[in-house]
Design brief:
By secondary structure, this protein is of the alpha/beta class. The protein folds into 2 domains: 120 residues, Rossmann fold (3-Layer(aba) Sandwich); 114 residues, Rossmann fold, CATH 3.40.50.10090. Helices cover 40% and strands 20% of the residues. The chain has 12 helices and 10 strands. Helix 11 links the parallel strand 9 and strand 10. The longest helix has 14 residues.
């Protein structure tokens, strides 16, 4: 059995893949995503950087106003880049493996930017790493299009974790450090003794950074999906079902 921790509004594709692969699952959302009404900047930009899949989803209605040539589009990782590509947007640069601001900043397309107008599309209250690095040589603005709110314990959470804990070989999926930490917090509020049980389960994550953080809080059996995508996650899950 798989514990799915994504927001309910964004778990549909992975649910379908799990069902196609005959894998049982329960829903245990760590966050909910809420759209923010925003005002677009009036100026044009040389570079637009999308920080997450959610940034793509919630900014789509502004694409016709944002994408004024000539400009370059960057993504913080391969999943975000694929989401943009699926929507017909050409992505000029993104880290091929792990999604992180640091890896994007290390790429010459990004590190060599100077005297450019850069727009970072993101959720409210995200990391300042990208902006702080780029603003040394460039003008950098934000377009914040969504807000993540940590879920409170609900009946769904209680029912899902109780069912999941009845399966000794259950697998947890975590897409981010924040979601993993909030899952642990929710489980602790439901049943304190379930926390150690949770940490003994196999954990599948999308990057080495999440793996390191997971191990630091006591998860012992952590695996990074070979490709950070829904299909890559399914392949990793199937490997552990053998």
């Amino acid at each position: 059995m798989v514990l799915l921790t994504r927001p309910l509004s964004q778990v549909g594709n992975l649910q379908s893949l799990l069902e196609d692969s005959d894998l049982d699952y329960v829903l245990f959302p760590a966050f909910e995503i809420n759209k923010i009404d925003t005002v677009l900047p009036s100026q044009r930009y040389d570079v637009i950087i999308f920080i997450s899949v959610n940034a793509v989803i919630y900014a789509e209605e502004y694409f016709s106003q944002l994408f004024v040539e000539p400009l370059k589009v960057f993504a913080v990782g391969p999943i975000t880049a694929k989401k943009l590509t699926d929507k017909g947007v050409k992505v000029d640069a993104y880290p091929l493996e792990n999604a992180s601001s640091q890896e994007l900043l290390a790429m010459p397309e990004c590190s060599e930017l100077a005297d450019k107008k850069v727009l970072i599309v993101r959720g409210k209250g995200g990391s300042e790493t990208l902006k702080n690095s780029l603003k040394v040589m460039n003008q950098v603005d934000y377009l914040e299009v969504y807000r993540r709110a940590a879920c409170e314990v609900s009946r769904l959470h209680v029912e899902s974790i109780e069912r999941f804990m009845q399966t000794p070989d259950g697998i947890v999926i975590a897409n981010s450090v924040e979601s993993l930490f909030n899952v642990v917090k929710l489980v602790k509020e439901i049943r304190l003794y379930h926390v150690d049980q949770l940490k003994s389960r196999t954990l599948v994550v999308l990057s080495e950074r999440i793996k390191v953080q997971a191990q630091s809080i006591g998860f012992k059996n952590v695996h990074v999906a070979r490709t950070p995508s829904d299909k890559g996650t399914i392949i990793e899950l199937l490997n552990h079902q053998k």
